[in-house]
Design a protein that fits this description.
Layout: E1 12-15, H1 27-35, E2 46-49, E3 57-59, E4 68-69, E5 74-77, E6 82-88, E7 92-98, E8 103-109, H2 111-115, H3 118-130, E9 137-141, H4 154-160, E10 169-172, E11 175-178, H5 180-190, E12 198-200, H6 215-220, E13 232-238
Parallel strand pairs: 2-4, 2-6, 3-5, 9-12
Antiparallel strand pairs: 1-13, 5-8, 6-13, 7-8, 7-9, 10-11
Length: 241
């Protein structure tokens, strides 16, 4: 799938689906993007974040091509022919593009990442390193588990129930559900991103587990996927082939 907000803006992007297999096999990333019409790609064009459920953000260098950057959940680049890649299977993949400055970012928006402020860290770093302005940013939020199915386990509920994040709770059927989508969008707007510049895919990975991998679905039905711990990937890149 692709986002309307990023089309016709001179930026490569796409979100892989189950039919393309788990993107933990990185060679499949090339095949998927070729399917979308992007040609002449090599593994050296891709940069992956390790994703440790933290808030560290890395500004990519040319020598990062083909690597997984350790200890980070966010990537930023202004380099042509470099594709930022975020793996997920329920967490929010968030793609950002400043078409004025030609700067991109890819964020792993897990609950812990969002709570620890990864969105603020990313946008502030874009402002500091590349003179980006939040009001110019285009933001695409990929498929992720929605409040309809993201119920909190007891340990997590106890951790959050006395914090400011309790306002994202939804009580239903004796369980506490958490609205990751609203949390992310609220944070983006507070940081100065324009509402009209945010596109939400509106896809729940749990509901559409046959199209996008869902960790919670695989917890419920361990044999639902043929591959172990599969992940789909959200890509964004600046190409000048």
């Amino acid at each position: 799938m692709q986002f309307e907000i990023l089309k016709d803006n001179g930026v490569l992007h796409g979100v892989s689906e189950v039919k393309f297999g788990s993107m933990k096999d990185r060679k499949r990333a090339i095949k998927f993007l070729e399917f979308l019409g992007y040609k002449n790609l090599k593994l050296e064009n891709f940069v992956f974040a390790e994703q440790v459920f933290g808030n560290k953000v890395h500004v990519c260098k040319k020598e990062d091509g083909g690597k997984e950057i350790k200890g980070v959940d966010g990537l930023i680049s202004n380099l042509p022919n470099q594709i930022l890649s975020i793996k997920s299977a329920d967490c929010l993949p968030i793609l950002i593009y400043d078409k004025k400055k030609r700067v991109i970012a890819a964020i792993h928006g897990g609950r812990e990442c969002l709570i620890k402020g990864i969105l603020e860290r990313t946008i502030r770093k874009m402002e500091k390193e590349f003179n980006c302005q939040a009001e110019d940013l285009l933001v695409a939020i990929g498929p992720h588990i929605r409040v309809c199915h993201y119920w909190l386990k007891e340990k997590t509920y106890q951790k959050l129930k006395t914090t400011k994040f309790k306002k994202y709770f939804l009580r239903k059927d004796g369980k506490i559900y958490f609205d990751l989508t609203k949390l992310a969008i609220d944070q983006l707007l507070k940081l100065g991103v324009k509402k009209e510049n945010v596109e939400d895919s509106k896809i729940c990975t749990f509901c559409q587990w046959k199209r996008f991998f869902s960790f919670r679905k695989s917890e419920e039905k361990p044999n639902v996927y043929r591959e172990k711990n599969p992940r789909f990937v959200s890509f964004i890149g600046l190409l000048e082939f």
